[in-house]
Write a structure and sequence with these properties.
With 248 residues, this protein is of the alpha/beta class. The chain contains nine helices and seven strands, in the order E-H-E-H-E-H-E-H-E-H-H-E-H-H-H-E. The protein is 46% helix and 15% strand.
Length: 248
């Protein structure tokens, strides 16, 4: 039997990149998946089509997780469509760098609204439906300890994700709901292409620092998330797993 057979998973920000890889991996393990997106309906529909064509179950659900009613709507759509929710993957995030002199209030608030507030609102909504054995996996970043220049606000959001996850692991433990973090290193995605990292000196430097000698791919992260979502990880909560090819 597949590891997630009979489970229902919600993956936020799943229309592309790491989120799309996670949604497909959870579906391969038997989960019915809600593919959340904020604006890229075409991307989310493509992820759903790939899952369905492989014999899985999935639906695309629009929702801006920075707005409480929409975050609740994503979770409620999962319950309405599939009858329950067992796994929440908080993957929605903005990947945006700025040198210190270029940091603005808008830059800060945009990053913290999506990367931190969105996680809290979606988790708040999901916690009302998760039962014993439920699993929440939050996506952070190895940037919290790599300390890349120009990433002050972004790294701050991911440090907050790690701290919040530890608190929630303890807060939800009496209900037997687990909360863990996957902290990717550099991964080739649409986002890192758009940010100009792929093909840049920054990418070359990151790969040079990576003991396994290559950039990550979405599937490298998705497999770790699928493990944490499953009962194989039933004795893990409050953990931060760095999936970075060994970069420190």
């Amino acid at each position: 039997m597949s590891k997630l057979e009979g489970k229902v998973a919600v993956v936020t920000g799943a229309s592309k990149g790491i989120g799309a890889g996670i949604a497909k991996a959870l579906a391969r393990e038997g989960a019915a998946v809600v593919v959340n997106y904020a604006s890229s309906k075409a991307g989310a529909d493509a992820v759903v089509a790939a899952i369905v064509s492989a014999g899985g179950r999935a639906v695309a659900v629009q929702g801006d997780v920075t707005k409480a009613p929409e975050a609740r709507g994503v979770i409620e759509a999962a319950v309405k469509q599939f009858g329950r929710i067992d796994v929440l993957v908080n993957n929605s995030g903005i990947y945006e760098f700025a040198a210190l002199e270029d940091v603005t209030e808008d830059h800060y608030r945009r990053l913290f609204d999506v990367n931190v507030l969105g996680l809290l609102l979606t988790t708040q909504a999901a916690a009302k439906h998760l039962g014993e054995g439920g699993s929440i996996v939050n996506i952070s970043s190895a940037i919290t300890h790599v300390h890349t220049p120009t990433a002050a606000a972004y790294a701050g959001t991911k440090g907050a994700v790690n701290a919040i996850s530890g608190v929630l692991a303890n807060e939800l433990a009496p209900r037997k709901i687990r909360v863990n973090v996957v902290s990717p290193g550099f991964v080739v995605t649409e986002g890192t292409h758009t940010a100009g990292v792929v093909g840049s000196d920054m990418e070359a430097g990151l790969v040079a620092q990576t003991p396994l000698g290559r950039a990550g791919q979405p599937d490298d992260i998705a497999g770790v998330v699928a493990f944490l979502a499953s009962d194989d990880a039933r004795w893990l909560t409050g953990e931060v797993i760095t999936a970075s090819g060994g970069i420190r």
